[in-house]
Amino acid sequence: MEKLVLPLILLLIFSIFIVESNAIVPKFIESQCKHTRYPGLCVSSLATHLNPTSQDPQEIAQAALKVSIVKAVYTKNYLEIVSKELKQKKAKEYQAVKDCLDQMSDSVSELTNSFKEFEHMKSAEYSEGDFAWCQSNVQTWLSTVLTDTYICMDGFYGYPMGGKRMAMIKARVLNVAQVTSNTLVLFNGFAAWHRANSNGGFKNKP
């Protein structure tokens, strides 16, 4: 049963991203994104995946999390292809790519855990202690994803593999790191808003 959960969650996220279109960038998204490390990327990645009238920090943080999951899955799939090609050729770079693939697979699991925790947080009324526990879990998983991505990129030092393939791997992994960095900031912003405006549940909206 557990093995079915991840594909179902990913299918839901991907279907949402496919349906939504027509980017509109409301001021509220811009105001939230300006606090991130990569504000331009934040705005561009969220503009097509949010209700343009949204004023909800929770909705923005969750949309950012979905972006991170999609980027991580795409990167993992690409690394699987490259890894198989290098293994067949018995290339010495294979192990570095395989290690990176393992890190990215872990990242997909950690991001999916974060998504499930976020969904669970919305399903019931919470005490502040419960909310703090869930918040800590999500923050830990997102921070671990950042660690995974940089371990992946560090693993390529000393290998001669270059050209378009290496550039593509680095670009995709770096993109996962950047969108996840933004997600962590937006999630922290939501958590701060929650503490300031909620009595323990999710009923109150700004």
From TrEMBL:
It is found in: Secreted, Extracellular space, Apoplast. One of its GO terms (biological process) is plant-type cell wall modification. The lineage of its organism: Eukaryota, Viridiplantae, Streptophyta, Embryophyta, Tracheophyta. Coiled coil: none annotated. GO terms for cellular component: apoplast; plant-type cell wall. Pfam families: PMEI. InterPro entries: Invertase/methylesterase_inhib (IPR035513), Pectinesterase_inhib_dom (IPR006501), PME_Inhibitor (IPR051955). Keywords: Apoplast, Disulfide bond, Secreted, Signal. Residues 24-186 form the Pectinesterase inhibitor domain. CDD domains: PMEI-like_3 (cd15798). Belongs to the PMEI family. Gene3D superfamilies: Invertase/pectin methylesterase inhibitor family protein. This is Pectinesterase inhibitor domain-containing protein. Residues 1-23 form the signal peptide. GO terms for molecular function: enzyme inhibitor activity. The keyword Secreted applies.
